[in-house]
Amino acid sequence: MAGEKTFYQEYEVFSKRTQNSAFQHQFSLLAPNEDMALIMAQENFMRREPVADIWIVNRRDVRKMDREEKKTLARLDNKEYRLTKGYGYLKKKWRHYEQQVLDEKEILSWGGDRK
Amino acid sequence: MTPIHTVTDDELLANFMERIEAGEKIEADDWMPEEYRVTLIKLISMHGISEIMGALPEKEWVPRAPSLSRKLGIMSKVQDEMGHGQLLLRVTEDLLLPYGKNRGDLMQDLFKGDLKFHNVFHMETKTWADAGIIGWLVDGAAIITQTNMLKASYGPYARALQRICAEEVFHAQHGESIIMALAEGTDEQKAMIQEALNRWWESLLMFFGPASKETTGSSKQDLTIKYKIRTKTNEDFRQIFFDKYIPRILALGLTIPDPTIRFDEESRLWTYQQPDWEEFKKIIKNKGPRSQARLNLRKTSYEYNAWVRDALSATVT
Protein backbone atom coordinates (compact mmCIF):
# COMPACT_ATOMS: atom_id res chain seq x y z
CA MET A 1 0.00 0.00 0.00
CA ALA A 2 3.03 2.23 0.53
CA GLY A 3 3.20 3.29 -3.14
CA GLU A 4 -0.44 4.22 -3.16
CA LYS A 5 -0.08 6.50 -0.16
CA THR A 6 1.54 9.07 -2.42
CA PHE A 7 -0.13 8.15 -5.68
CA TYR A 8 -3.37 10.12 -5.47
CA GLN A 9 -3.65 13.82 -4.87
CA GLU A 10 -6.74 15.60 -3.70
CA TYR A 11 -8.25 18.16 -6.04
CA GLU A 12 -11.09 20.55 -5.39
CA VAL A 13 -13.40 21.00 -8.36
CA PHE A 14 -15.08 24.28 -9.33
CA SER A 15 -17.32 24.87 -12.30
CA LYS A 16 -19.75 27.36 -13.74
CA ARG A 17 -23.01 26.55 -15.46
CA THR A 18 -23.02 29.39 -17.95
CA GLN A 19 -20.54 31.99 -19.17
CA ASN A 20 -22.19 34.58 -16.94
CA SER A 21 -22.44 32.57 -13.75
CA ALA A 22 -19.84 32.57 -10.99
CA PHE A 23 -17.63 29.58 -10.28
CA GLN A 24 -19.08 27.28 -7.72
CA HIS A 25 -17.39 24.60 -5.66
CA GLN A 26 -18.64 21.16 -6.65
CA PHE A 27 -16.75 18.55 -4.68
CA SER A 28 -13.31 17.01 -4.35
CA LEU A 29 -11.78 14.07 -6.14
CA LEU A 30 -8.64 11.98 -6.21
CA ALA A 31 -6.42 11.96 -9.27
CA PRO A 32 -2.77 11.28 -9.99
CA ASN A 33 -2.29 14.58 -11.83
CA GLU A 34 -4.05 17.73 -13.03
CA ASP A 35 -4.97 16.41 -16.45
CA MET A 36 -6.60 13.33 -15.02
CA ALA A 37 -8.32 15.50 -12.42
CA LEU A 38 -9.90 17.59 -15.15
CA ILE A 39 -11.22 14.51 -16.95
CA MET A 40 -12.46 12.99 -13.70
CA ALA A 41 -14.18 16.26 -12.77
CA GLN A 42 -16.26 16.07 -15.91
CA GLU A 43 -17.00 12.38 -15.47
CA ASN A 44 -17.82 12.68 -11.78
CA PHE A 45 -19.76 15.89 -11.54
CA MET A 46 -20.88 17.07 -14.96
CA ARG A 47 -22.68 14.18 -16.53
CA ARG A 48 -25.94 16.09 -16.95
CA GLU A 49 -25.86 19.72 -15.89
CA PRO A 50 -24.83 22.37 -18.38
CA VAL A 51 -21.26 23.52 -17.82
CA ALA A 52 -19.29 26.38 -19.34
CA ASP A 53 -15.94 26.05 -17.56
CA ILE A 54 -14.13 23.90 -15.01
CA TRP A 55 -11.30 24.68 -12.59
CA ILE A 56 -9.45 22.14 -10.56
CA VAL A 57 -7.27 23.18 -7.64
CA ASN A 58 -4.86 20.97 -5.78
CA ARG A 59 -6.10 20.94 -2.20
CA ARG A 60 -2.63 21.69 -0.83
CA ASP A 61 -2.87 25.09 -2.55
CA VAL A 62 -6.06 26.02 -0.73
CA ARG A 63 -5.56 28.20 2.34
CA LYS A 64 -8.39 27.16 4.60
CA MET A 65 -9.72 28.80 7.72
CA ASP A 66 -9.54 26.89 10.94
CA ARG A 67 -12.32 26.83 13.48
CA GLU A 68 -10.92 29.78 15.45
CA GLU A 69 -10.55 31.88 12.33
CA LYS A 70 -14.08 31.10 11.28
CA LYS A 71 -15.28 32.66 14.52
CA THR A 72 -13.94 36.01 13.32
CA LEU A 73 -16.46 35.89 10.49
CA ALA A 74 -19.42 36.47 12.77
CA ARG A 75 -20.89 39.96 12.16
CA LEU A 76 -22.07 42.37 14.76
CA ASP A 77 -25.54 43.56 13.95
CA ASN A 78 -24.53 47.25 13.90
CA LYS A 79 -23.62 47.90 10.29
CA GLU A 80 -26.77 49.62 9.11
CA TYR A 81 -24.73 52.49 7.66
CA ARG A 82 -23.31 49.98 5.15
CA LEU A 83 -26.73 48.80 4.03
CA THR A 84 -29.66 50.38 2.27
CA LYS A 85 -31.57 49.33 5.37
CA GLY A 86 -29.85 52.19 7.21
CA TYR A 87 -31.25 54.70 4.71
CA GLY A 88 -34.80 53.43 4.56
CA TYR A 89 -36.15 56.72 5.94
CA LEU A 90 -35.35 58.40 2.59
CA LYS A 91 -38.42 56.89 1.00
CA LYS A 92 -40.65 58.86 3.31
CA LYS A 93 -38.58 62.01 2.89
CA TRP A 94 -38.79 61.91 -0.91
CA ARG A 95 -42.50 61.33 -0.69
CA HIS A 96 -42.65 64.65 1.16
CA TYR A 97 -40.93 66.28 -1.84
CA GLU A 98 -43.29 64.43 -4.18
CA GLN A 99 -40.46 62.30 -5.62
CA GLN A 100 -39.95 58.54 -5.63
CA VAL A 101 -36.94 57.07 -3.90
CA LEU A 102 -34.29 55.65 -6.25
CA ASP A 103 -34.17 52.18 -4.76
CA GLU A 104 -32.04 49.19 -5.74
CA LYS A 105 -34.50 47.90 -8.28
CA GLU A 106 -34.74 51.29 -9.97
CA ILE A 107 -30.99 51.98 -9.98
CA LEU A 108 -30.04 48.56 -11.32
CA SER A 109 -32.52 48.99 -14.16
CA TRP A 110 -30.61 52.00 -15.53
CA GLY A 111 -28.34 49.79 -17.62
CA GLY A 112 -31.29 48.91 -19.80
CA ASP A 113 -33.14 50.92 -22.41
CA ARG A 114 -34.35 54.42 -21.55
CA LYS A 115 -37.97 54.20 -20.48
CA MET B 1 -2.78 34.80 22.40
CA THR B 2 -1.92 33.05 25.66
CA PRO B 3 -4.25 30.20 26.41
CA ILE B 4 -5.72 30.88 29.80
CA HIS B 5 -7.61 27.65 29.89
CA THR B 6 -6.91 24.24 28.39
CA VAL B 7 -10.05 22.92 26.76
CA THR B 8 -10.89 19.46 28.04
CA ASP B 9 -12.39 16.65 25.97
CA ASP B 10 -15.63 16.99 27.92
CA GLU B 11 -15.87 20.64 26.95
CA LEU B 12 -15.08 19.84 23.33
CA LEU B 13 -17.76 17.17 23.35
CA ALA B 14 -20.31 19.48 24.95
CA ASN B 15 -19.52 22.14 22.38
CA PHE B 16 -19.74 19.58 19.59
CA MET B 17 -23.14 18.34 20.73
CA GLU B 18 -24.35 21.94 21.06
CA ARG B 19 -23.34 22.60 17.47
CA ILE B 20 -25.17 19.49 16.28
CA GLU B 21 -28.26 20.36 18.29
CA ALA B 22 -28.21 23.87 16.79
CA GLY B 23 -28.22 22.34 13.30
CA GLU B 24 -24.66 23.44 12.49
CA LYS B 25 -22.69 21.35 10.01
CA ILE B 26 -19.58 19.52 11.11
CA GLU B 27 -16.75 19.68 8.57
CA ALA B 28 -13.86 17.30 7.95
CA ASP B 29 -11.27 19.42 9.80
CA ASP B 30 -13.47 20.10 12.83
CA TRP B 31 -12.97 18.38 16.14
CA MET B 32 -15.30 15.43 16.52
CA PRO B 33 -15.63 12.65 19.07
CA GLU B 34 -14.10 9.34 18.04
CA GLU B 35 -17.51 7.65 18.20
CA TYR B 36 -18.91 10.12 15.64
CA ARG B 37 -15.96 9.67 13.32
CA VAL B 38 -16.11 5.87 13.52
CA THR B 39 -19.89 5.86 12.99
CA LEU B 40 -19.50 8.06 9.91
CA ILE B 41 -16.64 5.98 8.51
CA LYS B 42 -18.62 2.76 8.89
CA LEU B 43 -21.76 4.26 7.40
CA ILE B 44 -20.23 6.17 4.50
CA SER B 45 -17.59 3.63 3.50
CA MET B 46 -20.31 0.99 3.40
CA HIS B 47 -22.58 3.30 1.43
CA GLY B 48 -19.78 4.15 -1.00
CA ILE B 49 -18.61 0.60 -1.57
CA SER B 50 -22.24 -0.51 -1.95
CA GLU B 51 -22.73 1.97 -4.79
CA ILE B 52 -19.83 0.29 -6.55
CA MET B 53 -20.86 -3.27 -5.68
CA GLY B 54 -24.45 -2.38 -6.63
CA ALA B 55 -23.34 -1.40 -10.10
CA LEU B 56 -22.15 -4.99 -10.64
CA PRO B 57 -25.55 -6.76 -10.77
CA GLU B 58 -26.81 -3.92 -12.96
CA LYS B 59 -23.92 -3.88 -15.37
CA GLU B 60 -24.66 -7.53 -16.09
CA TRP B 61 -27.73 -6.19 -17.91
CA VAL B 62 -25.95 -3.73 -20.16
CA PRO B 63 -25.15 -6.31 -22.88
CA ARG B 64 -28.54 -7.96 -22.43
CA ALA B 65 -30.77 -4.87 -22.43
CA PRO B 66 -33.63 -5.37 -24.91
CA SER B 67 -33.04 -2.22 -27.02
CA LEU B 68 -30.41 0.40 -27.72
CA SER B 69 -32.21 3.06 -25.69
CA ARG B 70 -32.55 0.64 -22.74
CA LYS B 71 -28.85 -0.11 -23.08
CA LEU B 72 -27.97 3.59 -22.97
CA GLY B 73 -30.31 4.15 -20.02
CA ILE B 74 -28.92 1.37 -17.86
CA MET B 75 -25.35 2.17 -18.87
CA SER B 76 -25.69 5.76 -17.69
CA LYS B 77 -27.19 4.50 -14.46
CA VAL B 78 -24.24 2.16 -13.88
CA GLN B 79 -21.93 5.09 -14.53
CA ASP B 80 -23.84 7.20 -11.99
CA GLU B 81 -23.49 4.49 -9.36
CA MET B 82 -19.73 4.42 -9.85
CA GLY B 83 -19.72 8.21 -9.61
CA HIS B 84 -21.65 8.03 -6.34
CA GLY B 85 -19.07 5.55 -5.09
CA GLN B 86 -16.31 8.04 -5.94
CA LEU B 87 -18.04 10.84 -4.02
CA LEU B 88 -18.66 8.75 -0.95
CA LEU B 89 -15.21 7.19 -0.85
CA ARG B 90 -13.82 10.73 -1.05
CA VAL B 91 -15.88 11.71 2.00
CA THR B 92 -14.67 8.60 3.81
CA GLU B 93 -11.02 9.22 2.96
CA ASP B 94 -11.09 12.65 4.58
CA LEU B 95 -12.51 11.05 7.72
CA LEU B 96 -9.86 8.32 7.65
CA LEU B 97 -7.00 10.84 7.61
CA PRO B 98 -6.15 10.56 11.34
CA TYR B 99 -5.82 6.79 10.91
CA GLY B 100 -3.51 7.08 7.90
CA LYS B 101 -5.82 4.94 5.79
CA ASN B 102 -6.83 5.51 2.18
CA ARG B 103 -8.92 4.15 -0.69
CA GLY B 104 -6.56 1.24 -1.30
CA ASP B 105 -7.02 0.19 2.33
CA LEU B 106 -10.80 0.35 1.95
CA MET B 107 -10.57 -1.92 -1.07
CA GLN B 108 -8.47 -4.40 0.93
CA ASP B 109 -11.01 -4.21 3.78
CA LEU B 110 -13.72 -5.12 1.29
CA PHE B 111 -11.76 -8.11 0.00
CA LYS B 112 -11.00 -9.29 3.54
CA GLY B 113 -14.67 -9.04 4.46
CA ASP B 114 -14.13 -6.30 7.07
CA LEU B 115 -16.00 -3.73 5.01
CA LYS B 116 -19.48 -4.89 4.12
CA PHE B 117 -21.56 -3.98 1.12
CA HIS B 118 -25.30 -3.60 1.27
CA ASN B 119 -27.31 -6.81 1.76
CA VAL B 120 -29.45 -6.15 -1.31
CA PHE B 121 -26.48 -6.43 -3.66
CA HIS B 122 -25.70 -10.04 -2.72
CA MET B 123 -28.70 -11.30 -4.65
CA GLU B 124 -29.01 -12.79 -8.07
CA THR B 125 -30.69 -11.16 -11.07
CA LYS B 126 -32.41 -13.59 -13.39
CA THR B 127 -34.39 -11.65 -15.98
CA TRP B 128 -34.70 -8.15 -17.44
CA ALA B 129 -37.63 -7.65 -15.04
CA ASP B 130 -35.15 -7.96 -12.15
CA ALA B 131 -33.25 -5.01 -13.62
CA GLY B 132 -36.57 -3.13 -13.65
CA ILE B 133 -37.42 -4.11 -10.07
CA ILE B 134 -33.97 -3.00 -8.92
CA GLY B 135 -34.33 0.39 -10.59
CA TRP B 136 -37.89 0.88 -9.42
CA LEU B 137 -38.00 -0.58 -5.93
CA VAL B 138 -34.41 -1.02 -4.75
CA ASP B 139 -33.57 2.51 -5.84
CA GLY B 140 -36.89 3.63 -4.38
CA ALA B 141 -35.89 2.10 -1.05
CA ALA B 142 -32.46 3.71 -1.29
CA ILE B 143 -34.02 7.10 -1.96
CA ILE B 144 -36.11 6.78 1.22
CA THR B 145 -33.04 6.21 3.39
CA GLN B 146 -30.83 8.70 1.57
CA THR B 147 -33.24 11.61 1.50
CA ASN B 148 -33.58 11.22 5.25
CA MET B 149 -29.89 12.09 5.55
CA LEU B 150 -29.91 15.15 3.27
CA LYS B 151 -29.73 17.27 6.41
CA ALA B 152 -27.12 15.07 8.11
CA SER B 153 -24.97 16.84 10.71
CA TYR B 154 -21.84 15.96 8.74
CA GLY B 155 -21.60 18.58 5.98
CA PRO B 156 -19.56 16.66 3.39
CA TYR B 157 -21.93 13.67 3.54
CA ALA B 158 -25.01 15.89 3.29
CA ARG B 159 -23.53 17.63 0.25
CA ALA B 160 -22.62 14.32 -1.41
CA LEU B 161 -26.18 13.13 -0.82
CA GLN B 162 -27.60 16.27 -2.44
CA ARG B 163 -25.81 15.30 -5.64
CA ILE B 164 -26.64 11.62 -5.31
CA CYS B 165 -30.35 12.08 -4.60
CA ALA B 166 -30.75 14.41 -7.58
CA GLU B 167 -29.55 11.55 -9.80
CA GLU B 168 -31.58 8.95 -7.93
CA VAL B 169 -34.72 10.64 -9.22
CA PHE B 170 -33.58 9.70 -12.72
CA HIS B 171 -32.80 6.16 -11.54
CA ALA B 172 -36.24 5.69 -10.01
CA GLN B 173 -37.94 6.86 -13.20
CA HIS B 174 -35.61 4.74 -15.31
CA GLY B 175 -36.75 1.68 -13.31
CA GLU B 176 -40.40 2.72 -13.53
CA SER B 177 -40.06 3.01 -17.29
CA ILE B 178 -38.75 -0.58 -17.60
CA ILE B 179 -41.53 -1.88 -15.34
CA MET B 180 -44.23 0.15 -17.08
CA ALA B 181 -43.24 -1.27 -20.49
CA LEU B 182 -43.41 -4.81 -19.12
CA ALA B 183 -46.64 -4.18 -17.19
CA GLU B 184 -48.31 -2.97 -20.36
CA GLY B 185 -46.80 -5.78 -22.42
CA THR B 186 -47.67 -9.41 -23.10
CA ASP B 187 -48.89 -11.89 -20.48
CA GLU B 188 -45.41 -13.36 -20.46
CA GLN B 189 -43.88 -9.96 -19.69
CA LYS B 190 -46.42 -9.35 -16.92
CA ALA B 191 -45.57 -12.74 -15.46
CA MET B 192 -41.89 -11.78 -15.59
CA ILE B 193 -42.44 -8.79 -13.32
CA GLN B 194 -44.53 -10.78 -10.88
CA GLU B 195 -41.78 -13.40 -10.68
CA ALA B 196 -39.15 -10.74 -10.20
CA LEU B 197 -41.24 -9.09 -7.47
CA ASN B 198 -41.68 -12.46 -5.72
CA ARG B 199 -37.94 -13.00 -5.93
CA TRP B 200 -37.07 -9.55 -4.60
CA TRP B 201 -39.79 -8.99 -2.00
CA GLU B 202 -37.87 -10.44 0.93
CA SER B 203 -34.72 -8.54 -0.11
CA LEU B 204 -36.74 -5.34 -0.24
CA LEU B 205 -37.87 -5.89 3.34
CA MET B 206 -34.33 -6.71 4.44
CA PHE B 207 -33.05 -3.63 2.63
CA PHE B 208 -33.83 -1.37 5.60
CA GLY B 209 -32.29 -3.72 8.16
CA PRO B 210 -33.90 -5.28 11.21
CA ALA B 211 -36.19 -3.17 13.39
CA SER B 212 -33.92 -3.51 16.41
CA LYS B 213 -30.42 -4.61 17.25
CA GLU B 214 -31.80 -7.76 18.90
CA THR B 215 -31.87 -9.45 15.49
CA THR B 216 -28.21 -9.24 14.62
CA GLY B 217 -26.64 -8.13 17.90
CA SER B 218 -25.71 -4.67 16.70
CA SER B 219 -27.22 -1.74 14.86
CA LYS B 220 -25.93 1.62 13.79
CA GLN B 221 -29.33 3.22 13.87
CA ASP B 222 -29.21 4.46 17.49
CA LEU B 223 -25.87 6.20 17.00
CA THR B 224 -26.80 7.72 13.67
CA ILE B 225 -29.95 9.16 15.21
CA LYS B 226 -28.11 10.39 18.31
CA TYR B 227 -25.67 12.33 16.15
CA LYS B 228 -28.36 13.67 13.83
CA ILE B 229 -26.99 11.85 10.83
CA ARG B 230 -30.47 10.54 10.25
CA THR B 231 -33.78 11.04 12.00
CA LYS B 232 -35.78 7.87 11.34
CA THR B 233 -35.44 4.22 12.32
CA ASN B 234 -35.14 1.21 10.01
CA GLU B 235 -38.76 0.35 10.67
CA ASP B 236 -39.88 3.93 9.92
CA PHE B 237 -38.19 3.62 6.52
CA ARG B 238 -39.82 0.27 5.80
CA GLN B 239 -43.25 1.71 6.63
CA ILE B 240 -42.64 4.68 4.31
CA PHE B 241 -41.60 2.25 1.59
CA PHE B 242 -44.90 0.36 2.00
CA ASP B 243 -46.88 3.65 1.97
CA LYS B 244 -45.27 4.80 -1.26
CA TYR B 245 -44.95 1.60 -3.23
CA ILE B 246 -47.68 -0.86 -2.23
CA PRO B 247 -50.44 1.19 -3.91
CA ARG B 248 -48.33 1.48 -7.07
CA ILE B 249 -47.46 -2.23 -7.14
CA LEU B 250 -51.15 -3.09 -6.80
CA ALA B 251 -52.20 -0.49 -9.37
CA LEU B 252 -50.09 -2.30 -11.99
CA GLY B 253 -52.06 -5.48 -11.31
CA LEU B 254 -49.23 -7.14 -9.39
CA THR B 255 -49.68 -9.15 -6.19
CA ILE B 256 -47.62 -8.60 -3.05
CA PRO B 257 -46.12 -12.00 -2.29
CA ASP B 258 -47.25 -11.77 1.34
CA PRO B 259 -50.90 -12.72 1.91
CA THR B 260 -50.75 -11.39 5.48
CA ILE B 261 -49.74 -7.82 4.66
CA ARG B 262 -52.31 -5.22 5.67
CA PHE B 263 -52.55 -1.63 6.78
CA ASP B 264 -53.74 -1.19 10.33
CA GLU B 265 -55.92 1.92 10.38
CA GLU B 266 -55.58 2.39 14.11
CA SER B 267 -51.81 2.30 14.40
CA ARG B 268 -51.36 3.69 10.84
CA LEU B 269 -48.76 0.94 10.35
CA TRP B 270 -48.40 -1.95 7.97
CA THR B 271 -48.24 -5.44 9.47
CA TYR B 272 -46.38 -7.93 7.35
CA GLN B 273 -44.59 -11.23 7.27
CA GLN B 274 -41.03 -10.74 8.55
CA PRO B 275 -38.28 -11.81 6.17
CA ASP B 276 -35.94 -14.60 7.24
CA TRP B 277 -33.54 -12.66 9.44
CA GLU B 278 -31.34 -15.75 9.80
CA GLU B 279 -30.77 -15.55 6.06
CA PHE B 280 -30.05 -11.83 6.48
CA LYS B 281 -27.33 -12.63 9.00
CA LYS B 282 -25.70 -14.96 6.49
CA ILE B 283 -25.89 -12.37 3.71
CA ILE B 284 -24.20 -9.69 5.77
CA LYS B 285 -21.37 -12.14 6.45
CA ASN B 286 -20.83 -12.33 2.68
CA LYS B 287 -22.57 -15.71 2.50
CA GLY B 288 -25.44 -14.63 0.25
CA PRO B 289 -26.21 -16.17 -3.15
CA ARG B 290 -23.87 -13.90 -5.12
CA SER B 291 -21.62 -12.46 -2.38
CA GLN B 292 -18.44 -14.27 -3.32
CA ALA B 293 -18.98 -13.99 -7.07
CA ARG B 294 -19.36 -10.19 -6.86
CA LEU B 295 -16.40 -9.85 -4.51
CA ASN B 296 -14.31 -11.94 -6.88
CA LEU B 297 -15.38 -9.82 -9.81
CA ARG B 298 -14.35 -6.64 -7.97
CA LYS B 299 -11.09 -8.23 -6.87
CA THR B 300 -10.22 -9.48 -10.34
CA SER B 301 -10.94 -6.09 -11.83
CA TYR B 302 -8.86 -4.37 -9.13
CA GLU B 303 -5.93 -6.68 -9.78
CA TYR B 304 -6.31 -6.62 -13.54
CA ASN B 305 -6.26 -2.81 -13.56
CA ALA B 306 -3.29 -2.53 -11.20
CA TRP B 307 -1.04 -1.70 -14.16
CA VAL B 308 -3.02 1.51 -14.78
CA ARG B 309 -2.43 2.67 -11.22
CA ASP B 310 1.24 1.69 -11.51
CA ALA B 311 1.64 3.58 -14.77
CA LEU B 312 -0.03 6.71 -13.43
CA SER B 313 1.86 6.66 -10.15
CA ALA B 314 5.11 6.55 -12.10
CA THR B 315 4.34 9.99 -13.56
CA VAL B 316 4.09 11.65 -10.14
CA THR B 317 7.11 13.86 -9.71
TrEMBL record, chain A:
Check the record and name the InterPro entries matching this protein: PaaB, PaaB_sf
Q: Which Pfam families match?
A: PaaB
- Its protein name is Phenylacetic acid degradation B
Organism field? Filibacter tadaridae
From TrEMBL, chain B:
Q: Does the keyword Oxidoreductase apply?
A: yes
| SUPFAM superfamilies the record matches | Ferritin-like
- Where does this protein have coiled-coil stretches? none
One of the record's GO molecular function terms: phenylacetyl-CoA 1,2-epoxidase activity
Its BP terms in the Gene Ontology are: phenylacetate catabolic process
Q: Known InterPro entries for this protein?
A: Aromatic_CoA_ox/epox, Ferritin-like, Ferritin-like_SF, PaaA, PaaA_PaaC
Gene3D superfamilies the record matches? 1.20.1260.10
Give the EC number(s) under which this enzyme is classified.
1.14.13.149
Might you report a single GO cellular component term?
cytosol
* Keywords (A to Z) from UniProt: Oxidoreductase
Record-given protein name: 1,2-phenylacetyl-CoA epoxidase, subunit A
Q: Which organism is it from?
A: Filibacter tadaridae
